[in-house]
Amino acid sequence: MAEAYIVGAVRTPVGTKKGALAAVHPADLGAHVLKELVERTGVDPEAVDDVIMGCVMQVGPQSLDIARTAWLSAGLPERVPGVTIDRQCGSSQQAVHFAAQAVLSGTQDLVVASGVENMGMVPMGSSVAMALEKGMPFPYGDGWNERYGDQEISQFRGAQLMCEKWGYKRGDLEQFALESHRRAVHAIGSGHFDREIAPIAGVTKDEGPRADTSLEKMAGLKPLREGWELTAAVASQISVGAGALLIASEEAVKQHNLTPRARVRTLVVEGSDPVYMLTGPIPATEKALKRGGLSIDDIDVFEVNEAFAPVPLAWAKETGASLEKTNPNGGAIALGHPLGATGSILMTKLVHELERTGGRYGLQTMCEGGGQANATVIERV
């Protein structure tokens, strides 16, 4: 049976929207991890079949197929093509899926799966804002409006609806957020991320985690909307970053003397209610476990994107997953969420955490715009 192996995984530090990385061109951020991936794996870049890069706001400096631009900006061979994809927040997790599927199908042997987003330079919503400024219609047309009406569709409302459905109060969310920061600060101080990070622009560590945050400080913040449970403290941070993984076939591993680090065990993607928007990881996880013949207790490490605190909380409640094994080194509330890059960053973290702890199985999932979610199970080898 064909296998798809992760043979390399690297990321930049995740920077804040006003930090040093915000001034780095997105193509150069992407180029940095691509070059580092080639150097760390020792692969001949001429042998790479394709570069798949996730990026959500594909406008301005992130337009014109940034996968191709980043590869060429890294000084890598012109013969290697690149394609940029958008599955919203799951874009670079989908890049991993597409890369693994190409390898599993036997049509390609070496594929780079990557992601990049500079939210300091290209703000969230830029693509919609630019279209509206030019008088173009809103993304939702007549068919959508006939089906869902003119109600508000946003990740913020979706998160609040989750709070109401699962009964989470502000205090529950703030306790979770505080633990995210605590874990991230501990991980950085303990050097858990050192092997996976490729420093850039003088930045060597993730900039987001706050060692001095507290429940008292969180309690002083205003809710995102009057009467809501949500505040900025329980939402993912606006961030800058990039990540890249090399996916190889068994034949490529032998031919290029590569070292398999993890086997891609299961790949699924699932749609969910686009109004709630953020609940997709629940059915996606169940689908991935069923397809892989695994139980929730078989998984040693979970990476569940902390778009908002109610997302992993409700996910854990519905799936029965242990929160102790979920985002053990902190999540996006502390470390940040550079949209199109987050999938590749979480997968890089997952590979390294399994290696650090000796775990066997890791599962990654994340909510995505439009009511979708990817789920990936990997097995350390």
From TrEMBL:
Thiolase N-terminal domain boundaries: 5-251
One Pfam entry name: Thiolase_C
Keyword Acyltransferase: yes
GO molecular function annotations of the record: acetyl-CoA C-acetyltransferase activity
Limits of the Thiolase C-terminal domain: 259-380
Keyword Transferase: yes
Record-linked PROSITE patterns: THIOLASE_2
Residues in the signal sequence: none
Keywords per UniProt: Acyltransferase, Transferase
Enzyme Commission number, as recorded: 2.3.1.9
Similarity-based family: Belongs to the thiolase-like superfamily. Thiolase family.
Name of the protein described by the UniProt record: Acetyl-CoA C-acetyltransferase
Source organism (scientific name): Actinoallomurus acaciae
